[in-house]
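Predicting holo structure, 4-fluoro-L-phenylalanine bound.
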Amino acid sequence: MKTVSQINNKGSQPRDSFGSKFGFIAATAGSAVGLGNIWRFPYITGENGGGAFLLIYLAFIVIIGLPVMLSELVIGRSTQRNPFGAFRKLKPGSKWFLIGIMGIAAAFMINAFYSVVAGWTLEYLVNAITNQFSGKNTGEITALFTNFQGSAWRPVFWLLVFVAVSASVVLAGVQKGIEKYTKILMPVLLVLIVILCVRSVTLPNSAEGLKFLFNPDFSKIGPSTILIALGQAFFSLSIGMGTLITYGSYMKRNENLGSSATSVVFADTLIAILAGVAIFPAVFAFGISPASGPDLVFLTLPNIFARMGGGFIFGLLFFFLLVVAALTSTISILEVVVAYFSEELKMSRKAATLLASAGIALLGILCSLSLYKVPEISIGNTNLFGVLEYVSSNILLPLGGLLIVFFVAWLFGKDKLKNELSSNGKYKIGYYAIYRFIIKFLAPLAIALVFLNGLGILTF
Ligand code: PFF
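Done. Tokens:
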């Protein structure tokens, strides 16, 4: 049976929604937990001094990330629309819908470059299954990576497989696709990462790795580290481009926004820290530099799996974990575009998913080729992959985040905001005063600094 809100929704089709609070949390934590946590967070932490970076990152997650996430959910749930339609509904006749357009553009860009790396995780899962790491020395493991990148078709093939899997989940709908799969995959992911942590901390000399991750060395912290930490917090929480507006729009009216957002932020942070616990003790146990950069996952870790007892099974679990983490994130990014196409351009879900995925695949292929095979696919001196990563993470996400908190703080309406956060008085919102202070002043200021730095206007 249709609910009143479904019938009232302007389209003729009833609007899909998450079936339960756990469904929402699994899907949203699935979006947040991804390559950003398991691939990017450990190497950024490694490059920026370990524990001290971690502390700053945690402060940003709580002080800025959580309020921005809450603001997106408020916009999504109160309007029950995609990011474009949401601003149209809230401020008809104004230019605020451009935030939605920016989000949809960011979704295309992030999905394209993200799916390229996600495709690599599939190649590496197959490598792990076929026992390619064991007995190989460092040079041979590097060759595994360079041969793969040098192949004309393999990275593109895996990219297409990945986009197709992601599309098939989204095609099935919010409750029967996204929620159904993330409810299974997220607990699996947690179990896998805990198993890997246990293995890692029981390696000889593992205490060194834990010390590196948790002992703060503030001499390594400069202004740029602070900005990197905020950028990582945005990327990791999937905020600033309307993903949380979209997922929030599928949330039931009687659910508690504050506690749901807190659970998602907690899960995302926990998994990032556990990824660090799984990786650094192993890195130290085998005497490898913790600051290995983006290669950490594809070059450094296979070296460890090649030498560690049980390396075959742990390598397999690790790459399976990466695939799952990447998949639950790409489906959320795809959903942003699909929601827009189907609600605003009145396409069927099938047509919307196929069109969005075809566009993402095309852009993804260009991105993939631009990295190693055809570097001429570039803008200025930067290859397309780098351009999309830079523009989306350093410009579109912070700018989107800034405009979203500004909108909620100054234009949304105080009473409406309180009603939305408390589900019309059902829940206590003791955090309201501090939340409002943050979105009015602190968050816009902090985000503006990152944004200006990202643009190169303000350099530290
Ligand atoms: N949060 C994801 C990660 O950490 O890997 C990446 C991401 C997903 C960014 C969804 C933005 C987004 F909308």
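Strands lie at 378-379, 382-383.
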